[in-house]
Amino acid sequence: MELGAHVSAAGGIDKAIDRAVGIGAETIQVFASSPRAWKFKPIAEDKALSFREKAAAAGIEATFLHGSYLVNIGGKPEHVAKSVASLTNHMGAAAQLGARGVIFHSGSHKGVGFDAVLGQAADALAQVLDNTDDDVQLIIENCAGMGAQIGASFAELGRLIKAVDSPRLKICLDTEHAFAAGYNIADPQGIQSAMSEFDEEIGLDRLVVVHANDAKVEFGSGVDRHENIGEGYIGVEGFETIMAHAAFADVPFLLEVPGMNKKGPDKPNLDRLKDIRERLAVAG
């Protein structure tokens, strides 16, 4: 189980590796372009080469990009078209950087219901996959269930994956989102139930990365609010439960927490995950 974090790419995407090394990250996630804009800024090849070389030197094999927050495959046609273009650009950048894939939020059906947008959502993802490198994964992140979000339930995610029918379409499980959506993964019985449902609806082979976030809000709240590891409603014992489950044994964990100084994922949070990993290893 590799443990890491989302890190800043400010000053050049290769700088993200330097920051990752600084906090002891073994795996990383970065933004390839502004997550709050449609315009995609291409990555210069020298920066991409430096990123790949630094990652190799640091022993960081699992790298991921996070897509734009504007993506919505359940919206109006013009918005879906922009989402396809954005995801396609990010997938190209992932291939350029040697990243495993692009993690993205699927968006909202805007109140019309999941069934009404399933076809267009599947078509949009198929377009992205058909026009990008076969070695790069397109990774849907489960959501907390706020408003009319797509993919808060494993059943919806499973239906979307089945509709696209591509081995390259994978899942990122966000611990806070799952907890907020009503999956009590902090509880030993709850996580067994949740991951059995995940396997039945989606398939555990589709789980390729975890966003490791504590919850600032109570179980089942439907609200997306991250907290530092051990300081929220999931807690240290909850993460011990999660990390001890066999489904996560070989899955990279990425922090997306506020940080002790409110500057994002940091070494203290990463060290808490490493301490849990070490205790679980000693316990056998």
How are the SSEs ordered, and which strands pair?
Elements: E1 3-6, H1 15-23, E2 27-31, H2 45-58, E3 62-66, H3 77-97, E4 101-105, H4 114-130, E5 137-141, H5 154-164, E6 169-174, H6 175-180, H7 188-201, E7 207-212, E8 214-215, E9 226-227, H8 235-244, E10 253-255, H9 267-283
Parallel strand pairs: 1-2, 1-10, 2-3, 3-4, 4-5, 5-6, 6-7, 7-10
Antiparallel strand pairs: 8-9
Report on this model:
This protein is α/β, with parallel strands linked by helices. The protein has a single domain (3-283), classed as Divalent-metal-dependent TIM barrel enzymes (TIM Barrel), CATH 3.20.20. It has helices at residues 15-23, 45-58, 77-97, 114-130, 154-164, 175-180, 188-201, 235-244, 267-283, and strands spanning 3-6, 27-31, 62-66, 101-105, 137-141, 169-174, 207-212, 214-215, 226-227, 253-255. The strands form two sheets. Strands 1-2-3-4-5-6-7-10 form an eight-stranded parallel beta barrel, surrounded by five helices. Strand 4, helix 4 and strand 5 (137-141) form a beta-alpha-beta unit. Helix 1 (15-23) runs parallel beside helix 2. The radius of gyration is 18 Å and the shape is globular. The model has no long low-confidence stretch (mean pLDDT 96).
Summarize the structure.
With 284 residues, the protein is of the alpha/beta class.
Q: Please describe the biggest sheet, giving its number of strands, its sense, and whether it closes into a barrel.
A: 8 strands, parallel, barrel
From the helix content, strand content and strand pairing, which structural class follows?
A: alpha/beta
Fraction of residues in H or I helices: 40-55%
Give the N-terminus to C-terminus distance in angstroms. 14 Å
Percent strand equals 15-25%
